[in-house]
């Protein structure tokens, strides 16, 4: 049966739903929205749906029969090529042998906005009011056509039946389109009474405690908002604004408001617009779930605050690192002069190096990067977590930490610290009346069979030896529905202002970046257990450089001239003393410009250059570039408290001999100098 002529054309459909696509009865792409073509250029007309997209929800293989049974369900689709996720639903137009999908992007993290060249505004890819106007215009045009035909042919029963069938088809199309929209839409008359509403409006009302049909056709919408105990906090403002539109005092009204559920924060964007048509007054009111955009905007604002705080913390940490450097470096000199106090000095040195490590960690974190993967013992990390939690957990929560395995992994201390802290704080929140948290470290061999049963969505478990860090609580546990969604960005079961829903998604990203995977066990009322699997480092390779250096005799020079460039006077002074003890001839420079002068003066006898990275006027990289022009083969050592990956790559391209972490010890410097080639 043919659909009558309507103003709602396929071109208008593309403009209103830029991420839509249309499948024919063979589930091949027949039409693509403009925005979808932009971000998924590999998708072409005629391609099979299954070759380009995977259905994440509902789970199941896609076929015509399967799709027909799930048309009214919520869909989450993922582009196989670039990972773009679309969230929406299919419109039932089976009489045309077509399937219309209308949806919007569903991004896993805000950083993917840049990847797909999208803005926050792209998440609201169509204006529900415009949709309604177009739908009503289409419906009115079809209705007028059908009624005109019925009037002319009222004495011809067969043609009248055809006109009625056309009208029925048009109404079916209008209703199906309205029900496919995710916005809650109601149409009001001049008294604020509901003329029509869609399925989303009914579902929203019922989710907030309204009785079924309370906002159905014929119900007083505005009066209901004012008098109902289930109405949103902004009910008075909504009624005032919508009432002004009905009275003709304003053409449109818009208000963003919160309407939270007990376990889920939620924001909506209300828009009210007068229907620009002839006949009685009609006002279209849409309530769009704006939660995702709101959370992204909040996240962006929080990121900007964290960036400012990180800049401040980075500056303080850099200065603190420079203040610690002469202390840590000088303790070695002090120990040689006071052998009777060697044990005390070793304790002071260990504390100083621990403080320097914490400062370096803060510097790395303030730059928003994960730093380098290094051999890392798990035991000290867990003991540090234990110290932090002991002072922050409520008294009715018992903390047990088992570090007997004492394993070593290749990892980033800052990021793994963040993983464990996130899991422990979630465990705390799951035990409002007290309980027990157990953190356990153990070695586990994962074979192929076990690995096949452990892999999660987007995460591959491989056979091998793993350090398993398990955080177990005796809290409330999770339902299967919560477990299925717990790693989704912004998903949280906590109340408003108590969580962003980003903690577990961050944990997942960090574990994946360490080539690891997760296992989760939880039962409602019996607690939860998170197991983090990180590949264990080979045994025999977990000695740090400091231990190796101490176990060997210190290398000593033969009076070679060494240039030390650093803008901190205490570091220059202690560095000169260490170089003299190692039988080198130290020459000092307070910045890069002075260092270039010394290089020119000492060109014939200079054997080694040691330079800081962050210096005024001429920084370390610029200084090294200038030295390479005049002395392309001289060994250069860069000493820095923290170093960005791009700086290290640039320095390696300049043929740097080696890197020293500031503050460096006498043993570390001697070890580095001992590796240099002998001068001719």
Textual characterization of the structure:
Strand 4 (75-79) and strand 5 (85-93) form a beta hairpin. Helix 20 (592-601) packs parallel to helix 21. Among the domains are: 18-125, 2-Layer Sandwich (Beta-Lactamase); 373-542, Histidine kinase-like ATPase, C-terminal domain (Heat Shock Protein 90); 545-674, Response regulator (Rossmann fold, 3-Layer(aba) Sandwich), CATH 3.40.50. The longest helix has 47 residues, at 291-337. With 680 residues, the chain is of the alpha+beta class. The protein is elongated, with a radius of gyration of 34 Å. The chain contains 23 helices and 23 strands. The chain has a 6-stranded antiparallel β-sheet.
CATH fold annotation of the domain at 373-542: Heat Shock Protein 90
How many strands?
A: 23
Overall 3D geometry? elongated
Biggest sheet strand order reads 2-1-6-5-4-3
* Global mean pLDDT: 76
Q: What is this structure, in a nutshell?
A:
The chain is α+β, with helices and mostly antiparallel strands and 680 residues long.
């Amino acid at each position: 049966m043919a659909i009558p002529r309507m103003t709602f054309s396929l071109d208008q459909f593309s403009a209103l739903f830029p991420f839509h696509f249309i499948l024919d009865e063979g589930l091949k792409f027949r039409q693509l929205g403009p925005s979808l073509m932009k971000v998924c250029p590999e998708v072409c007309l005629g391609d099979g749906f299954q070759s380009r997209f995977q259905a994440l929800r509902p789970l199941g293989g896609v076929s015509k029969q399967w799709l027909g049974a799930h048309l009214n369900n919520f869909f989450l689709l993922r582009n196989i090529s670039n990972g773009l996720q679309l969230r929406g639903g299919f419109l039932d137009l089976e009489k045309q042998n077509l399937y219309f999908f209308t949806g919007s992007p569903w991004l896993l993290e805000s950083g993917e906005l840049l990847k797909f060249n999208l803005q926050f505004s792209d998440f609201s890819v169509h204006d529900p009011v415009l949709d309604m106007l177009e739908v009503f215009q289409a419906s009115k045009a079809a209705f007028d056509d059908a009624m005109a035909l019925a009037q002319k042919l009222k004495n011809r029963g067969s043609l009248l039946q055809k006109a009625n069938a056309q009208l029925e088809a048009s109404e079916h199309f209008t209703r199906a389109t309205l029900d496919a929209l995710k916005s809650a839409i109601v149409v009001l008359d001049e008294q604020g009474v509901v003329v029509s509403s869609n399925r989303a409006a009914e579902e929203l009302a019922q989710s907030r405690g309204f009785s079924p049909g309370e906002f159905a056709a014929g119900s007083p919408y505005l009066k209901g908002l004012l008098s109902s105990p289930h109405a949103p906090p902004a009910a008075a403002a909504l009624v005032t604004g919508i009432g002004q539109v009905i009275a003709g005092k304003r053409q449109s009204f818009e208000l963003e408001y919160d309407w939270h559920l007990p376990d889920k924060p939620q924001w909506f964007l209300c828009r009210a617009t007068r229907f620009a048509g002839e006949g009685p007054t009609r006002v279209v009111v849409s309530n769009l779930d704006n939660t995702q955009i709101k959370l992204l905007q909040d996240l962006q604002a929080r990121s900007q605050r964290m960036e400012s705080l990180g800049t401040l913390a980075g500056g303080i940490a850099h200065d603190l690192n420079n203040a610690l450097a002469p202390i840590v470096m000088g303790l070695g000199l002090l120990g040689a002069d006071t052998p009777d106090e060697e044990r005390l000095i070793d304790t002071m040195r260990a504390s100083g190096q621990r403080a320097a490590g914490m400062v370096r960690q803060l510097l790395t974190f303030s730059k928003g990067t994960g730093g380098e993967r290094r051999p890392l013992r798990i035991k000290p990390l867990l003991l540090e977590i234990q110290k932090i939690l002991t002072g922050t957990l409520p008294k009715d929560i018992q903390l047990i930490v088992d570090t007997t395995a004492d394993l070593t992994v290749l990892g980033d201390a800052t990021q793994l610290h963040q993983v464990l802290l996130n899991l422990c704080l979630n465990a705390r929140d799951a035990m409002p009346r007290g309980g027990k948290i157990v953190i356990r470290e153990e070695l586990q061999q994962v074979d192929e069979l076990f690995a096949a049963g452990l892999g999660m969505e987007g995460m591959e478990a491989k056979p091998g030896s793993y350090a398993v860090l398990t955080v177990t609580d005796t809290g409330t546990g999770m339902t299967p529905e919560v477990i299925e969604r717990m790693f989704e960005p912004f998903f949280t079961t906590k109340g408003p202002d108590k969580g962003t829903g980003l903690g577990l998604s961050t944990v997942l990203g960090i574990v994946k970046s360490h080539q690891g995977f997760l296992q989760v066990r939880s039962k409602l009322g019996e607690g939860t257990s998170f197991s983090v699997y990180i590949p264990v480092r080979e045994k025999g390779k977990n000695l740090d450089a400091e231990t190796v250096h101490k176990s060997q005799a210190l290398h000593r020079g033969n009076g070679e001239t060494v240039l030390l460039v650093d803008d901190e006077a205490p570091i220059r002074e202690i560095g000169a003393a260490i170089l003299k003890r190692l039988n080198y001839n130290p020459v000092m420079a307070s910045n890069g410009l002075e260092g270039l002068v010394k290089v020119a003066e000492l060109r014939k006898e200079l054997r080694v250059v040691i330079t800081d990275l962050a210096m005024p006027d001429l920084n370390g990289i610029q200084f090294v570039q200038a030295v390479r022009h005049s002395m392309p083969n001289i060994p250069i050592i860069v000493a820095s408290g923290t170093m960005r990956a791009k700086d290290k790559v640039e320095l390696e391209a300049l043929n740097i001999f080696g890197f020293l972490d500031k503050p460096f010890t006498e043993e570390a410097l001697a070890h580095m100098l001992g590796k240099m080639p002998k001068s001719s």
